[in-house]
Amino acid sequence: MADTEAVAGTATVLADRMPADSPQNPGAPAAKPDEVMSLVDHLTELRNRIVRSILAVVIGSTVGFAFARQIRELLVSPLPVDSRDLQVFGPGDAFGITLRIALMVGIILAMPVLLYQLWAFVSPGLTPIERKALRPWIPLALFFFALGVTIAWIVLPFAIGFLLAFTDATLVANLAAPPYFDFVTTMFLAFGLLMEFPIVLYALARVGILSSSRLTTSRRMVILGIAIFAAVATPGGDLISPLVLGGTMYILFELTVVAIRRSGR
Length: 265
Fold this sequence. Notes:
The protein has 265 residues and is an all-alpha fold. It has one domain (39-262). Helix content is 72%, strand content 0%. The chain has 11 helices and no strands. The radius of gyration is 29 Å and the shape is flat.
């Protein structure tokens, strides 16, 4: 009888020590597994972020469409007075130009929302230390975009003046509206987006892909890459736009290297 009680007591102790989800202890409640986002969850999250970003651009574009005439007059102001009567060649050209201006304004106005949606999608995959290090750069990304748009506005009169300097009595500057506004809107967005590259460099350094020493030793290749990007991103074919854009990007590159070095990378 005593042996039977000892065996029962031992079994009770072993049952208490078994994990909750052990197959030998089926009566105990099962432990909840860690919540991990599946591929479907990630795609759903990405879809929601994209939809919110598109809605922000649509709302901003609505504002741009409402003020398209005033913005159009502002964009034409860098032209010489005798060249501001731009020509359209198709019945839908004027409407297409209005939509292009509205879309440009929409992207600019929606940039805070776009940056937030990007951060909200990427940040869960980062460690707490990485999130803490990268969070202050999100407002800086908005500043860099605004800086690029501002530089484009400052450079625009010089670029147009350089290009129109080659016109004469034979090559008369009777400008067509679609190519001109394509040139202006592309220049604004290209300058704004290319100014975001310091954020990309710093983020790659924080996750261990780049380092300050590697960027320093690759300075020549970086300068070459900046020159190529600046030449491709400026659609006018003038010399002033790529020089100003490339010079600004190089200064930001050097400042980013200093920031990465000070962070210990």
